[in-house]
Amino acid sequence: MTEMESVKNAQRLFHILQAVQRIYRSVEGVSYEMFLADEDKQGNVVRCLEVIGEAANHVSEEICAANPEIPWAAIIGMRNNLIHGYNEVNYRLVWGTVQNDLKQLEVRIPQIISGLDMPLDFKVDHSTDDAATF
Fold it and tell me: Active-site residues: which are they?
């Protein structure tokens, strides 16, 4: 993998991590019933899941193959279902994903990023929504 491919993968992986963290901030202290009653929270969580799936879809095959414990196809499939089935969102499934599946991404994504061969002047800027800067 070239340095530029590593940078692009790191950016996409960081977008996944950011979206996971936004979801956790959005649902902190929220029960399933509260989530169902709050369209803004639903919209935020669904949008973040879409971002996660879109970014995952652009992570290189090499990264996906090296990290088979992450269900890349299921993540991308959920994004596709949310985007194309926007009028039939299964919020029980969305809530289950938030409660049961995102922790693995929160733990593994930083590990994957740290294992990439990055240029010395690459850094992830946590102060903005930009994934990476040079």
Answer: 79, 84
Cβ atoms of residues 123 and 133 within 8 Å: yes
Q: In terms of C-beta distances under 8 Å and separation of at least 24 residues, what long-range contacts does 21-30 make, across chains too?
A: 21/106, 22/48, 23/48, 23/49, 23/98, 23/102, 24/102, 24/106, 27/98
What's the CA gap between 52 and 57, in Å, rounded? 9
pTM of the model: 0.87
Place of tokens 């340095």: 3
Burial group, residue 81, by CB count within 10 angstroms (0-12, 13-18, 19+): middle
Instruction: Spell out the per-residue pLDDT of the chain, length 134, in tens.
Output: 787 888 899 999 999 999 999 999 999 999 999 999 999 999 999 999 999 999 999 999 999 999 999 999 999 999 999 999 878 999 999 999 999 999 999 999 999 998 887 766 665 544 444 444 32
Report the alpha-carbon distance of residue 44 to residue 21 in Å, rounded.
Answer: 12
Contact 81, 22 (CB under 8 A): no
